[in-house]
Design brief:
By secondary structure, the chain is an all-alpha fold. It has a single domain, classed as de novo design (two linked rop proteins) (Up-down Bundle). The chain has four helices and no strands. It starts with about 25 loop residues before the first helix and ends with a helix.
Length: about 110
């Protein structure tokens, strides 16, 4: 008698953490947020601490475990701190505000 191995746990898709239960519009908004944060992490005209903060926000959204609303709240908090940095160029601040606005629509 041969025992079959237990099925592997279901893994969420890369780039979005646990997406189960999200409406299609919310998935589109989340994809736009992830894309925007990715662009901020690669923007050489932004200070290094802002790029690192954007990467931290991406990591927060991709965490496995907490509910999406908890991840969104944590990400908004991180981005709000970054947006108040005095060394942040205006185009970076505008981009952050746009991302925060999209995240707020997910709540």
């Amino acid at each position: 008698m041969s025992l079959s191995p237990a099925p592997a746990p279901e893994r969420p898709p890369p780039g979005g953490g646990d997406r189960r239960g999200l409406a299609p519009r919310a998935l589109q908004a989340l994809d736009r947020v992830i894309e925007g944060l990715g662009q901020l992490t690669e923007d050489a005209s932004l200070p290094r601490n802002i790029r690192r903060g954007a990467q931290g926000a991406l990591d927060e959204l991709n965490r496995i475990g907490p509910a999406m609303d908890v991840k969104v709240a944590g990400t908004v908090g991180l981005l709000d701190e970054l947006a108040s940095d005095v060394n942040l160029p205006q185009h970076g601040r505008t981009a952050l505000w746009g991302i925060i606005s999209q995240l707020e629509s997910l709540r």
